[in-house]
Write a structure and sequence with these properties.
The complex is a heterodimer of chains A (about 400) and B (about 600). By secondary structure, chain A is an alpha+beta fold. Chain A has helices spanning about 70-75, 80-85, 95-110, 115-140, 145-165, 190-210, 215-220, 230-235, 240-245, 250-255, 275-300, 355-365, 370-380, 385-390; strands spanning about 30-35, 45-50, 55-60, 320-330, 330-340, 345-350. Chain A is about 45% helix and about 10% strand. The longest helix of chain A has 29 residues, at about 115-140. The chains are: A alpha+beta (about 400), B alpha/beta (about 600).
Chain lengths: ~400, ~600
């Protein structure tokens, strides 16, 4: 199903771009999807106006998960912000830890030890795999393929075991401190990681055969939710959503950070820019991450310090300055804007999550003319995480 | 779309033949990883209750609370962290910042309880089954959130310093002081330990902020002898410092000196402020040492007319006439004393109470009299031969050395004693020998062994560097005199200093005898107060406890007009004298403003 240029049977557009919908006519129905719709990752809702089973207008509503983190951070010392940041994005918390730490390090003039740089890269790739595992389960589930989620949850759990032994926690790792990371790799970690990677590859093979070589999935996903490449910059679209449209946007390549310049990989791209293409880009990206983890474990230094010498963190003051640190998370460009004023507290922290642009403005445009039953799958295909939209 | 797309999904059925991947009994079969951040453990014997964990916790999950049966003591607040698991986010910053390494986390994460209050408990005090769990998060080696090593204090090389009485240590520059001040976690254990309860974390914070005027104001709130204490304080605060448990204590003494080095006399005067309007009351103080002058400072600030009577020609007491110049330059004493003078305190030097003026006269002309006589008389070992004129007392020699008198520097000397005074006289003699003869020949013999030495470790180290030989665990037996001249000291090895009841009763190994050659023997085994000025009648009237004048908590004697302070009633160092001076001044002020003290 694609956008029909003939709009005669749809409501007329007012000069300001909104639709002239006469709800009293009985032709239209307001439908509230969410905030706890199972097709939505987290708490977000869409106010749909449908005509028959077709959406004529959709308004995104967020605010169910606003915790005020950015403000909380302004009332905490630089070290006290560290345990908070991971909570900004629950399914892929490590980017918050990395971006915050890197921003503080830049403004405080700290040099991160070599081994810590590699361990950070490792953690970010492990987190990416986990994030995609959640996505794949959600994307398949939105079309009724329940079994995929069970398999990817299993694979994700194996990776969580690796996270647990490396960082001491499964979900909120709190491991990337400003100045480095807490500790080196535990004994035998590479061996166990290899077993996990092999199991993930096997799972991905199953996922490919059951989800991607699947008549039902193809019928529903191919052609759904097309994003015009011309809209990418206008809407701030990054990550797999952009790469599936044929634009190889990848912060790891465009603005290399951590150990990525020393790693051999190519951003995965697609051409069709629909739900299927985006899912396929992510599936192949999992395999790239698996390969990257192997490269990291082979190339990284095995000894040396993992933490820079920190000043006394209890009264750590950072000179006046501002910076923006970004990285390529599983959804696109993730960034932290940090302003310091010479005091012991951050003056302002702003989190730039890709979900904000993808889930709000872009979705409102894409949702028009879509069948109600495809709305959930379309939303999932943008791979958005409401906690990171609202912060 | 192809035929494969229709068939392929059915491959999911092959999972029927796989073993389940779920853990059958996760509550028991799935322990946390070795680094898991589970429920806390706290070694409460190691914990000092510094509260740094409470400070860093961004959730406010930690409260420092008293624990039954655990008393506050030096360097231990007696408090222990109670953790509220309704707030804890398991970030382990408390473990990372823990100053003693007592706090850690077990790998236990499962706990079912119907009472929500149970999830708020004090680890190590409220017994839990994971208290002895071997696995769990421990702060990794080398992972510190505070700097553990003290900034090096520059000092003169031994061969250079032995040639003169110039001050040995350089003092910190601004950058060094900031770095050292940065290490402080502001737990405040030092404040409780300092006899004068100086606002140590606050003045260290002033150094971090570069606000020296604030710093000097804080110093003068509790200590008008900060220039002196910044150099020679016995710094008990540092022995209570939280940083000493896994690193070096903060150099609190040097930081205090740094503030005094950075401010001008005008800035100090501004910080001290002016005296209150005249109260019309007059106070006489006997002895211009730290106790007497601190009381004078406090009383003058409160508007009382204070006159200090000093027998020697310069004020400062033991800080001037006991402590050698290489440790405490006279300018530092002069500066501290001048500030006190600037409040209107009159110091009459060369005025010995008892001969130049009597105590009765002071009593008649003043509303209150404070005696702060110090410990000016050296104690004697009373071993055979000590009646020889070349057996001298350390305090006398130090006083003469300060006054520039020639007491006949010996070519070789033996010092009896192991305290700081023994080191002071040994090192003073070494300098005089170097200047006069070009060679150092000084031996120190102490009753204590090195493990229980009384002098500061720095003193022993520096004395050794300056060519002084220190013999530990040696008991003096006889001063050997041949042809009327002292030739040395005979000592026996000390087996024990105290008897089973803990009384001073040294026992010796007589077979281990040494002869220490020297033409002068110096006794530095302790001092006592010269109370002759009191006169027989008053001495008879006053209450005494084991040779010490008996005073109440405010330093008031059994005679309502007479107070006593400092070493003569409560030792043993400058900062204790300062604290005593404050106490006594408060007592005198209350008395003369509310009653007829005479």
């Amino acid at each position: 199903m694609s956008y029909t240029p003939d709009r005669s049977q749809y409501p007329a557009m007012r000069p300001d771009g909104t639709l002239d919908i006469d709800l009293t006519s009985g032709k239209y129905l307001k439908l509230w999807q969410g905030p706890q719709h199972p097709g939505i990752t987290g708490n977000m809702s869409v106010e749909l106006t449908v005509c028959g089973d077709e959406v004529v207008e959709g308004k995104t509503h967020v605010g169910y998960l606003h915790r005020g983190f950015e403000k909380l951070m302004e009332r905490r010392t630089f070290i006290q912000v560290f345990p908070i940041v991971c909570r900004v994005c629950v399914p892929e918390p490590d980017f918050n830890e990395y971006c915050y730490a890197a921003a503080v390090e830049e403004l405080a003039g700290l040099q991160v030890p070599e081994q810590a740089r590699w361990i950070r890269t490792l953690i970010l790739e492990m987190g990416r795999v986990n994030s995609y595992m959640m996505y794949l389960g959600g994307q398949a589930g939105a079309f009724g393929l329940g079994v995929i989620g069970q398999w990817t949850t299993y694979a994700r759990d194996l990776m969580l075991d690796r996270f647990e032994e490396l960082t001491g926690a499964r979900i909120y790792h709190m491991f990337i401190l400003p100045g480095g990371v807490r500790d080196g790799l535990p004994d035998g970690f590479a061996q166990r990681m290899e077993e996990t990677l092999a199991e993930i590859e096997r799972t991905m093979k199953d996922v490919y055969e059951v989800m991607f070589c699947n008549a039902v999935f193809k019928t529903r996903a191919v052609g759904l939710g097309y994003i015009d490449p011309a809209l990418l910059d206008q809407y701030g679209v990054t990550g797999p959503n952009a790469r599936a449209a044929g634009v190889a946007k990848d912060v790891r390549k465009d603005h290399p950070y951590l150990a990525y310049p020393e790693l051999d990989f190519e951003p995965v791209t697609g051409t069709e820019s629909d739900v299927y293409a985006r899912a396929d880009v992510r599936r192949r990206d999992v395999l790239v991450s698996v390969d990257l983890i192997r490269q990291i474990l082979a190339k990284m230094p095995k000894e040396g310090p993992v933490m820079a010498k920190l000043p006394n963190v209890l009264h750590w003051k950072i000179p006046r300055g501002e910076t923006y640190i970004r990285g390529e998370c599983s959804r696109g460009e993730y960034g932290y804007y940090l302003v310091t004023d010479g005091s012991g507290y951050p003056r302002r922290i702003n989190v730039r999550g890709p979900s904000y642009t993808h889930a709000m403005a872009l979705l409102e445009r894409m949702i028009v003319n879509v069948n109600i039953s495809d709305v959930a799958a379309l939303m999932v295909s943008l791979h958005t995480y409401p906690p990171e939209i609202e912060r | 779309m192809s035929f494969k797309d229709v068939v392929s999904p059915f491959t999911a059925w092959k999972n029927l033949f796989r073993d389940p991947v779920t853990i059958r009994d996760p509550l028991n079969d799935r322990p946390g990883a070795a680094r898991y951040r589970g429920f806390h453990q706290n070694d409460i014997e190691k914990c000092i209750g510094c509260g740094t964990c409470e400070t860093i916790c961004q959730n406010g999950a930690i409260d420092m609370l008293p624990v039954e049966g655990r008393a506050t003591k030096q360097g231990d607040s007696g408090l222990r962290p109670r953790i509220d698991y309704g707030r804890c986010c398991w970030c382990a910053l408390c473990v990372d910042v823990c100053m003693t390494g007592s706090l850690s986390m077990s790998n236990e994460y499962k706990w079912v309880e119907s009472d929500p209050d149970a999830f708020r408990f004090t680890p190590g005090v409220d017994a839990k089954h994971w208290d002895h769990a071997e696995l769990g998060y421990r702060r990794p080696e080398g992972h510190r959130l505070t700097a553990e090593h003290r900034l090096h204090m520059g000092e003169m090389a031994p061969e250079e310093r032995i040639g003169s009485f110039a001050e040995i240590v350089d003092g910190y520059d601004v950058a060094q002081a900031k770095l050292e001040a940065d290490r402080c976690v502001a737990c405040g254990l030092c404040v409780a330990t300092c006899p004068a309860h100086m606002a140590i974390p606050q003045y260290i914070a002033a150094i971090r902020d570069g606000d020296y005027e604030r710093g000097v104001s804080l110093l003068y709130e509790t200590n008008p002898f900060s220039g002196i204490c910044g150099r020679v304080c016995t710094h008990k605060c540092e022995s209570a410092c939280a940083s000493r448990h896994e690193g070096d204590p903060i150099a609190i003494r040097w930081l205090k000196r740094h503030i005094m080095d950075q401010v001008s006399v005008e800035q100090i005067r501004r910080a001290v402020g002016t005296a209150a309007p005249s109260s019309g009351r007059k106070v006489a103080i006997v002895g211009a040492g730290p106790a007497g002058l601190t009381a004078a400072f406090d009383l003058a600030k409160r508007g009382h007319a204070v006159t200090v009577f000093e027998a020697l020609d310069k004020p400062g007491g033991m800080t001037r006439f006991g402590i050698p110049e290489y440790r405490l330059p006279y300018e530092a004493i002069d500066q501290d004393v001048d500030i006190i003078r600037s409040l209107g305190v009159e110091i009459r030097c060369n005025t010995r109470v008892g001969s130049d003026v009597t105590l009765d006269e002071l009593r008649e002309k003043h509303d209150a009299v404070l005696i702060a006589l110090g410990l000016q008389l050296g104690r004697a070992t009373r071993v055979p031969g000590t009646d020889h004129p070349d057996v001298r007392k350390a305090v006398d020699l130090l006083r003469q050395a300060t006054a520039g008198e020639d007491f006949g520097t010996p070519r070789s000397a033996v010092v009896i004693g192991g305290g700081n005074v023994a080191m002071d006289i040994a090192r003073t003699l070494a300098r005089l020998q170097k200047q006069q003869f070009g060679a150092v020949k000084v031996i120190v013999t102490a009753l204590e062994d090195f493990a229980h030495f009384l002098a500061d470790p720095d003193e022993i180290k520096e004395a050794g560097e300056e060519g002084i030989a220190v013999f530990d665990a040696r008991g003096p037996q006889q001063v050997v005199v041949e042809d009327g001249k002292v030739t040395g000291l005979r000592t026996w090895k000390v087996k024990a200093i105290f008897d089973e009841q803990g009384r001073f009763a040294p026992s010796y190994d007589e077979t281990d005898e040494l002869f220490h050659p020297g033409s002068m023997i110096v006794e530095a085994i302790g001092q006592m107060t010269d109370t002759a000025l009191l006169g027989d009648a008053l001495t008879e009237k006053l209450a005494w406890t084991r040779g010490r004048l008996q005073v109440d908590a405010g330093g008031r004697s059994s005679e309502p007009w007479l107070w006593a302070a400092g070493d003569m009633v409560r030792g043993p160092d400058v900062i204790s004298a300062v604290a005593d001076g404050h106490r006594v001044a408060a007592s005198i002020h209350t008395a003369i403003m509310t009653e007829q003290a005479k």
